[in-house]
Design a protein that fits this description.
The structure holds two protein chains of two kinds. Chain A is of the alpha+beta class. Chain A has three helices and three strands. Helices cover 13% and strands 33% of the residues of chain B. In chain B, helix 8 packs across helix 10. Classes of the chains: A alpha+beta, B mainly beta.
Chain lengths: 100, 748
């Protein structure tokens, strides 16, 4: 099974620059790894202000319910996607992404 | 925290007709109700503002709040009778196909009161093994179990017999022979029982046990039930004495043996009255019952051989009903207020807006003109069949694959979360039951968390972009619904010159398609303003209002896959699944058909050479741009989410013009699997140029015409820059020409 190469920070930069839309094949493979179980679906965004602000939450329990995460309020979907990308990068590679 | 839930008894009402609203108010003593006309969706700062107008009506006001409950889960009810009351010895038996053995105690059949501990019944116990119980109502219960769990998705003949001469309570758990090579054996158990069952006044139930009186006035028999069974039951029987094993086997046959006829109190045959709620007793004793909450019928039974795929061809092999703990037809609430639509109330999209403290809940409905009183040349056909089958789509937050398909994080608001707080609101046909089987029935007689002008831009909410555009067009329009079209056919549409669809009119009955097609042949002009339309065949229940059946048969982009042999609707006997698999691909009526979907980003259209054809001149009047719709609030473009393309092979009229096509779709946008015979991988928007939306125009013999946008996201581009953009201009050009009575003529 394919793994994420922690040295491919270029893919993270590509995602940060454009979280939605056409991606390179390598980035697409990374995103598929991140978006499928066990990580995919664990994170959801709860609407704080419709179409303007969202809070990150983790689905938790049986049956699963969203549990809000501390200090994870976003005013753009792009920012939320980037935050979750970094979380998952760390979980899947064990390495921190040195990109803000 | 205050929460409101509500629904209405009709989706479509004409002046002079009444519509009832049922409300459950949690956490507040009173709530406010106002009837509002809906004019646009709440779509954020990049879209035109949300607009609703309160309609001054006497029904507007404060109402006392109360909590109303929903009894979810299907079962069958046979009224209590003196014969059952007087039973001492007995046998109950059935074929069963459990789907969640070992998942809590579940009732199979019997006259058993769980809260009083009396009567007799057959169950699966906590471990999933067969268990029989009799109780005298004075605190003594005798139970016996085979202690061997049943296997999920395997058929068994199960029975409990009680012989008063020997005081022996016996159980039989026999696997039904099949092609499976697994090991399973007859399991017998018995115990001495020195008491008599006290079943006086208890109804005989299938797939649930009696659990006291119900708080709901509309509850069958006035009782509350629980202990729902998940799985199929076939050929249940009740006898007035303890049968031996040979007799039990004899009685399991379709015909009641003559030598047992005096012993049989009831023998229910689910192959009869399959489209109805009736449970027919073939014993001659008249102990008919009825199902509650619409379990799935026309299900393969214990003797299904695989040779027949259509239940009408071998009804004797379709004697199973599949019960689910999470089936729901009608919440059955009492009405809290009613609106009689006044004469002169404009046809349109309305809602009852309920508010209490911080809670708000909108219950949309549609005011149509009275029959024969069309008030405009344009009719907007609200995709209410699609709204109904999507109602309470909880899979969106539970399915493992949602984020991969969406290419985005899932977004949920407080109204979405009501589905978690109140799972008794029931499921959508995009979900699976807790036992993993597909939800093939959906009803609008329950609160809907996802039919509203706010929240996710999808279906009803996205369709409000089209309503907003119609409002701003300055043209008068009437509104009718899918149910209206299903019931009334082309006569409903006859007064209108132009029909405008929603953004995703995905589900159609044969009657609906027939009505649209006949109207088009009579000169009608249709603007199909969406993507993935005319895709699934549905069946409305012939008698039960607001109830739709969907069998996700052998092909298509499916949230679940129907079990083999269960492709035909129980309601009508029609083959279910895609219209494309039934000789009516969407291309026939719309000129385009579903080709791809992906939800991360939308793209744009590019004009084609064919757009310069004189026949298409009216479409592009005043438009110089080559690129169309590189904007919009549904993921940033007019071409996206679900895409349709032109295909003469699938039925697009050969003279149709593709006036624009989309391009540059992302890796997430994937070709639909019905287009892929052999998986080859290169099927996304980056690698495959068939992943595109085609904007198509064609004339219909008889003076009519069709214009199709081929994209769900199209609607979200209409309002860009306050409706001053090339998509709004183009669409209005089409509307203007379609309103012109001058007939369209296909090229010679």
């Amino acid at each position: 099974m394919q793994q994420i190469d922690p040295k491919r920070v270029d893919l993270a930069a590509e995602f940060k620059a454009k979280p939605f839309g056409v991606h390179s094949a390598d980035l697409h493979a990374v995103l598929n790894l991140m978006r499928r179980p066990p990580l995919g679906g664990r994170h959801v965004l709860l609407v704080s202000k419709p179409h303007e602000a969202w809070v990150l939450a983790e689905m938790d329990g049986k049956p699963p319910r969203p549990r809000r995460l501390e200090n994870c309020v976003f005013d753009s979907l792009e920012a939320a996607e980037w935050f979750v990308f970094k979380l998952r990068w760390r979980e899947l590679t064990g390495a921190e992404l040195d990109i803000e | 925290m205050t929460q409101l839930l509500a629904y209405r008894d009709k989706e479509s009402v004409a002046p002079g007709e009444a519509i009832n609203f049922m409300v459950s108010c949690h956490g507040a003593e009173r709530y406010r109700a106002d009837i509002v006309r809906l004019l646009s969706p709440e779509a954020g700062p990049d879209a035109p503002p949300y607009r609703e107008e309160t309609v001054d009506l006497p029904v507007n006001g404060d109402y006392p709040g109360r909590v109303q409950e929903i009894d979810i889960g299907s079962w069958a009810y046979v009224p209590a009778s003196p014969v059952i009351d007087a039973l001492q010895g007995f046998t109950i038996q059935a074929f069963i196909w459990p789907t969640l053995p070992g998942s809590g105690s579940q009732a199979l059949l019997g006259a058993w009161s769980e809260n009083e501990g009396r009567g007799f019944g057959l169950f699966l116990n906590e471990a999933g093994a067969l268990e029989g119980r009799i109780g005298d109502g004075n605190g003594e219960i005798i139970s016996v179990s085979t202690a061997h769990p049943l296997l999920a998705h395997h058929w068994y003949l199960v029975a409990m017999s009680f012989d008063t001469a020997s005081n022996q309570l016996q159980l039989l758990q026999t696997p039904v022979e099949s092609s499976s090579l697994h090991a399973d054996y007859d399991r017998l158990a018995e115990t001495e029982a020195n008491l008599l069952p006290a079943a006086q006044g208890l109804p005989f139930l299938l797939a649930a046990w009696h659990d006291g009186p119900s708080a709901r006035q509309s509850a069958a028999g006035g009782i509350r039930v629980s202990g729902h069974f998940n799985g199929k039951i076939d050929a249940p029987r009740l006898c007035n004495r303890g049968l031996n094993h040979i007799e039990i086997a004899m009685l399991s046959e379709a015909e009641i043996p003559a030598e047992l006829s005096d012993s049989v109190i009831a023998a229910w045959d689910f192959t009869r009255d399959i489209s109805s709620e009736k449970v027919s007793d073939i014993s001659g004793n008249g102990r008919d019952g009825e199902t509650q909450n619409m379990p799935a019928r026309a299900m393969t039974g214990h003797n299904w051989s695989g040779a027949a795929m259509r239940w009408q061809d071998a009804p004797e092999q379709y004697g199973a009903i599949h019960f689910h703990e999470d089936d729901l037809y009608d919440a059955g609430w009492e009405a809290d207020f009613a609106l009689t639509v006044p004469e002169g109330m404009k046809s349109g999209v309305y809602a009852a807006r309920l508010a209490a403290d911080e809670a708000e809940f909108l219950v949309p409905f549609f005011v149509r003109p009275a029959k024969g009183r069309a008030s405009a040349d344009i009719v907007y056909l609200a995709s209410t069949a699609t709204y109904t089958v999507y109602t309470n789509n909880i899979g969106r937050m539970r399915n493992d694959w949602t984020e991969v398909v969406q290419g985005r994080l899932t977004i949920l608001d407080d109204t979405d979360l009501l589905m978690l707080d109140y799972p008794e609101l029931g499921l959508s046909t995009y979900d699976t039951h807790r036992d993993g089987s597909g939800v093939c029935l959906a009803s609008r007689l329950r609160p809907a968390t996802n039919v509203r002008p706010k929240g996710r831009l999808w279906n009803f909410c996205a369709d409000m972009f089209i309503v907003d555009w119609l409002e701003r067009s300055g043209q008068a329009y009437d509104v009718v619904t899918d149910e209206d079209l299903h019931r009334e056919g082309p006569e409903l549409l006859a007064p209108y010159r132009v029909l405008v669809t929603g953004s995703h009119p995905e589900y159609h009955s044969a009657e609906m398609l027939d009505g649209l097609e006949a109207w088009l042949r009579q000169g009608g002009r249709m603007i199909y303003m969406g993507g993935n339309g005319f895709y699934w065949r549905i069946a409305y229940h012939p008698e039960k209002p607001g109830l739709i059946e969907v069998r996700r048969a052998e092909d298509g982009t499916r949230a679940w896959i129907a079990e083999t042999g269960e492709y035909y609707h129980a309601f009508t006997g029609e083959y279910g699944g895609m219209w494309r698999r039934q000789g009516r691909p969407p291309n026939l009526i719309a000129g385009v058909g579903f080709i791809a979907q992906g939800f991360d980003a939308s793209s744009y259209f590019r004009r084609t050479e064919a757009s310069n054809d004189a026949r298409a001149g009216f479409i592009f009047e005043g438009i110089e741009d080559e690129i169309l719709g590189d904007f919009g609030v549904m993921q940033g473009g007019a071409a996206g989410l679900e895409l349709d393309c032109h295909s003469v092979r699938l039925g697009t009229p050969p003279h149709a013009l593709v006036v624009a096509s989309s391009e540059a779709h992302s890796n997430v946008v994937q070709m639909v699997n019905e287009e892929i015979a052999v998986a080859y991988g290169a099927t996304d928007g980056v690698q495959n140029d068939r992943v595109r939306a085609d904007m198509v125009f064609f004339e219909v013999p008889g003076g009519g015409a069709v214009f199709s946008t081929g994209s769900i996201a199209y609607a979200g581009a209409l309002g860009h820059n306050d409706f001053d953009n090339n998509i709004a201009r183009l669409t209005t050009n089409v509307l203007t020409r379609f309103l012109d009575p001058e007939p369209f003529m296909p090229p010679a």
